[in-house]
């Protein structure tokens, strides 16, 4: 198949045919001479920009100024050097009435039969698309702000210190964490990761978030909490909603600082880690069951562990693991090494060191949630 630049070249050698075609095109089309003065300005260009053809002939293109003029000059310069057809370059142009329009520009160089250089430029109005993109970004920014506004605040007393890290990706997601003090000695902490990304996952996450305070403080027991969350997901979605996120992974801990016990359920989530003073290795909190909403409807089992010394627990979403390296196993080992290295430091310092590892390791493609808990020996 003949490439586009050759087509332009053949048409340029027959300028009467080229100009006749351009004038009838339903899209914006402009032909410039080698000095970038207008030779042809079709009816669609008149309609879109407001200048009649007789107003612009033998004059520089009137629709570019400021930064747009520099961008247009760069495109022309690239075409001159490479003689390649440039396609779908976005820029802002100005109408005769002073208003602005977003356009997608394609540009090619050719020679007429006298050997003179001409430039053939076509444009498509993409203003509506760009306005939709800008509005979408505004809505995305607002949704992220709402998501972050409901994240739990740090807790610090003589028994326990709870801090957190949330690094948003470019997309909305269903990652979420929260924690509550149930009574004088007990605390409920949960990290949730709803399947997928985008608005639907974020809305499911916010729906779950609205339940959690009352559920955790009232129900307390991990099995009761997860049974209620499972029921909520069934009520939220019917079986016909096959294209919507139906399930989520989660890990929920009930920490009793008086009896020094931790009851928990891990529902298909990356394991939380507990490291006590002088321990050689971290304990992985993996007991629980499948993700909530799974087709495999198996009862959850509750794990229970005790601690006797100062200890740190970390809970997180898979975005943290993905950010460190491609290997999940290597990332778990790296997390454990970091826990050991900064075990005697405060949560905030540990989180800052971990954040440094994340930012130097990879581009963030998924939200990152981390909850760091220090169980004190007071």
TrEMBL record:
Protein keywords: Hydrolase
SMART domains registered for this protein in UniProt: PP2C_SIG
Gene3D superfamilies, A to Z: PAS domain (3.30.450.20), PPM-type phosphatase domain (3.60.40.10)
Alphabetized PANTHER family for the sequence: PHOSPHOSERINE PHOSPHATASE RSBP, STAGE II SPORULATION PROTEIN E-RELATED
Listed InterPro entries: Bact_Sigma-Reg (IPR052016), PAS (IPR000014), PAS-assoc_C (IPR000700), PAS-like_dom_sf (IPR035965), PAS_fold (IPR013767), PPM-type-like_dom_sf (IPR036457), PPM-type_phosphatase-like_dom (IPR001932)
Record domain PAS: where: 14-83
Domain PAC: 87-138
GO annotation, biological process: regulation of DNA-templated transcription
Species this protein is from: Paranoxybacillus vitaminiphilus
Domain of life of the native organism: Bacteria
A Pfam family it matches: SpoIIE
CDD domains in the cross-refs: PAS
Protein name: Sigma-B regulation protein RsbU (Phosphoserine phosphatase)
GO molecular function, one term: phosphatase activity
Presence of keyword Endoplasmic reticulum: no
């Amino acid at each position: 198949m003949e490439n586009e630049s050759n087509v332009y070249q053949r048409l340029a050698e027959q300028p009467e045919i080229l100009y006749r075609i351009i004038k009838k095109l339903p899209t914006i089309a402009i032909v410039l001479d080698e000095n970038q003065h207008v030779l042809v300005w079709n009816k669609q260009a008149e309609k879109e920009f407001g200048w009649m053809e007789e107003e612009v002939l033998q004059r520089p293109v009137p629709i570019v100024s400021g930064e747009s003029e520099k961008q247009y000059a760069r495109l022309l310069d690239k075409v001159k050097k490479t003689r390649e057809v440039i396609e779908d370059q976005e820029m802002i142009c100005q109408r005769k009435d002073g208003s602005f329009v977003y356009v997608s520009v394609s540009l090619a160089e050719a020679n007429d039969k006298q050997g003179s250089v001409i430039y053939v430029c076509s444009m498509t109005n993409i203003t509506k698309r760009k306005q939709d993109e800008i509005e979408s970004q505004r809505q995305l920014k607002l949704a992220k702000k709402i998501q972050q506004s409901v994240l739990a605040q740090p807790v610090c007393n003589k028994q326990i210190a709870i801090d957190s890290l949330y690094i948003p990706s470019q997309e909305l997601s269903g990652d979420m964490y929260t924690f509550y003090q149930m009574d004088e000695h007990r605390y409920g902490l949960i990290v949730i990761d709803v399947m997928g990304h985008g608005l639907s996952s974020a809305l499911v996450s916010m729906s779950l978030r609205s339940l959690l305070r009352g559920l955790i403080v009232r129900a307390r027991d991990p099995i009761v909490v997860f049974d209620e969350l499972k029921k909520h997901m069934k009520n939220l979605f019917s079986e016909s909603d096959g294209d919507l996120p139906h399930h989520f992974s989660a890990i929920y801990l009930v920490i009793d600082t008086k009896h020094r016990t931790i009851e928990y359920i891990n529902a298909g989530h990356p394991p939380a880690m507990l490291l006590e003073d002088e321990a050689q290795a971290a304990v992985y909190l993996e007991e629980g069951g499948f993700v909530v909403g799974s087709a495999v409807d198996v009862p959850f089992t509750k794990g229970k562990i005790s601690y006797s010394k100062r200890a740190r627990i970390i809970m997180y979403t898979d975005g943290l693991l993905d950010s460190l390296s491609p290997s999940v196993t290597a990332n778990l080992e790296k997390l454990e090494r970091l826990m050991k290295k900064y075990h005697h430091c405060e949560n905030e310092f540990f989180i800052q060191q971990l954040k440094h590892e994340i930012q130097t390791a990879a581009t963030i493609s998924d939200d990152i949630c981390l909850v760091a808990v220090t169980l004190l020996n007071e």
